[in-house]
From TrEMBL:
<dbReference type="GO" id="GO:0016020">
    <property type="term" value="C:membrane"/>
</dbReference>
<keyword id="KW-0564">Palmitate</keyword>
<keyword id="KW-1003">Cell membrane</keyword>
<keyword id="KW-0449">Lipoprotein</keyword>
<protein>
    <submittedName>
        <fullName>Putative lipoprotein LppE</fullName>
    </submittedName>
</protein>
<dbReference type="Pfam" id="PF05481">
    <property type="entry name" value="Myco_19_kDa"/>
</dbReference>
<dbReference type="InterPro" id="IPR008691">
    <property type="entry name" value="LpqH"/>
</dbReference>
<keyword id="KW-0472">Membrane</keyword>
<keyword id="KW-0732">Signal</keyword>
Length: 176
């Protein structure tokens, strides 16, 4: 009996002797498996990936013991602790609250001195504004004992006077 192999060019099936059509196989722990074994391995891997994705997306993951927070003061008034996500790509750190409104996004460059690159404040302490290195505002950043601290001034507006340009002093502290 001959197996049928599909031609890649025409899409038609061609007759081929049994030795010409290879069976898909995988080597697991030194054993050669068949296509059925491959399906079991693939299904197990898929279930593991889905379970990890669901666990990673659950709302409880941010409320656990390892939840990181960021403390933001606007003009010396504490706006509270907010859940924060800290990511690092090479020497650039991005600290972003899990909510955008109210929320804050901070970008810091590390490697040598810690440099504040960007601070975007959205509706914290009644203020929305931005610090951008060499663009607007002023800021100083530091990293001591595992804690980032950024102090500076952002240009923006207060929500009770949205048409009036203003500035606010901010202090941001987090341990990422």
């Amino acid at each position: 009996m001959h197996r049928r192999a599909r031609s890649d060019l025409t899409g038609k099936y061609l007759a081929a002797p049994p030795h010409a059509v290879s069976k898909p196989s995988v080597v697991v722990a030194g054993k050669v498996g068949t296509a059925v074994h491959n399906r079991v391995v693939n299904a197990t891997a898929a279930v593991s990936v889905i379970a990890a994705a669901v666990a990673g997306c659950s709302s409880e993951s941010h409320a656990g013991v390892d939840a990181r927070t960021i403390k933001v003061l606007i003009n010396g008034s504490d706006t509270g602790h907010h859940l924060v996500d800290c990511t690092q790509v090479r020497w650039l750190w991005t600290l972003k609250t899990l909510t955008d409104d109210p929320g804050v996004t901070v970008q810091l460059q590390t490697g040598g001195d810690v440099v504040a690159k960007l601070v975007q404040i959205n509706n914290l302490g009644g203020f929305t504004g931005t610090f951008g290195q060499d663009i607007t505002g002023a800021a100083h950043a530091s990293f001591r004992n595992g804690t980032f601290k950024v102090v500076g001034t952002a240009a923006g507006w207060y929500h009770d006077k949205p048409g009036e340009r203003s500035s606010a002093r901010f202090e941001i502290i987090t341990a990422c």
